[in-house]
Amino acid sequence: MLLKAIETTIKRAVIGHHKRSNKILFSDTTLRDGEQMPGATLEPDDKVKIALALQDAGVHSLDAGFPASSEADVEAIRRMIGVVRKPVLTCLCRTVTADIDAADKALKGQASHKRGVSLFCGTSPLHREHKLNKTKDEILAIIRETVTYASSKFPIVSFAGEDATRTEPDFLCQCYELAIECGATTVGFPDTVGVLTPEKAAEWMRTLRAGIPNLDKALLAVHMHNDYGLAVANTLACVAEGANVVQCTVGGIGERCGNAALEEVAIALDMNRDQYDRDFKLDMAKLAPLCRLVADLTGIAISPMKPVAGRNVFATEAGIHQDGLLKNPDTYLPYRPERVGAEGIEFVLGRHSGRKAVAHRLTELGLEADDGRVVRILDRIEELPKGEVVDESRLRDLAG
């Protein structure tokens, strides 16, 4: 009893510290929720590589997998033990004691303060009636039993109401209050089917903060899906209203339209510190390489228009933009490539390009860039078939 009391005191002190620091903790779920994206299956070795890259980037915690779902998840988690040391490793569990036991076994050997479980249970009328066939009282009884059980095995326990954003606010607050009472150190707020707008997300945060009397004893995490294309905006709205933890995936991969993209949330917070006034510990220069690693290992290509790591972020074909970028990169960039670890600015030569860009590329190749040659090259580019790329080899041909 004394040991348990000491542990509880320590946990509350840590939670209090996090809340007072006003910092945002990044919790990555690429290895679990992200992998649920059709075609994004990862082998155990791939997961370890991504986990190590996430560790280097500075994420606070990793959703390492769902041990009760497959042996491959268990194997991947086991390979992380003693290798991925800095982030907290958590396992997803249904509100079933067998799932908690499976997580306990998978995380055996991980430092006590670096292991945890994330429990979830459907709370909305749709889930209660059509999926679980449970009453509100039965849901509360399940939460009480399983969160109490999980807290006896793990110092870090998160509970999330699945389909929270379609749950009655009063009942959701009741579920979270009970979970915290039973030992949950984090309560997660997932927009499971991505139906929120930023205004509604902010209102939900205010509702939870006002309606959960013991929320001072737990962190509040948000987990947004992208079905309206608003996952990042909704996450930022929750941050503005006091969320402590943001759960994201690299590249925004995940179920259906995906999740809030870690790199997009991070760059928005980083570039708008005056607005959000929230600090966080991420190495911004690791973001673009991290996105490329996940794309390579999952086989899910990065859209050219994707922020941070998309090819077009720092590329332009338009002559006016090229001229401005050559004079000062900040004229047509929201942030420099090096800020996120991306490659330099790319001047794409095509029908919209101007003289300055052609001259710049010729100089880079060690070729003469007199006005006559530049004009001739632009004339020849105009005659090229649609879609033909003017790479180094093609430019040398055109210059000859």
From TrEMBL:
GO terms for biological process: L-leucine biosynthetic process. Pathway: Amino-acid biosynthesis; L-leucine biosynthesis; L-leucine from 3-methyl-2-oxobutanoate: step 1/4. The keyword Cell division does not apply. The keyword Cell inner membrane does not apply. One of its GO terms (molecular function) is 2-isopropylmalate synthase activity. Residues 24-288 form the Pyruvate carboxyltransferase domain. Its EC number is 2.3.3.13. Keywords: Acyltransferase, Amino-acid biosynthesis, Branched-chain amino acid biosynthesis, Leucine biosynthesis, Manganese, Transferase. Pfam families: HCS_D2, HMGL-like. InterPro entries: 2-IPM_HCS-like, AIPM/Hcit_synth_CS, Aldolase_TIM, LeuA/HCS_post-cat, PYR_CT. Belongs to the alpha-IPM synthase/homocitrate synthase family. LeuA type 1 subfamily. This is 2-isopropylmalate synthase. It comes from Stratiformator vulcanicus. The gene is leuA_1.
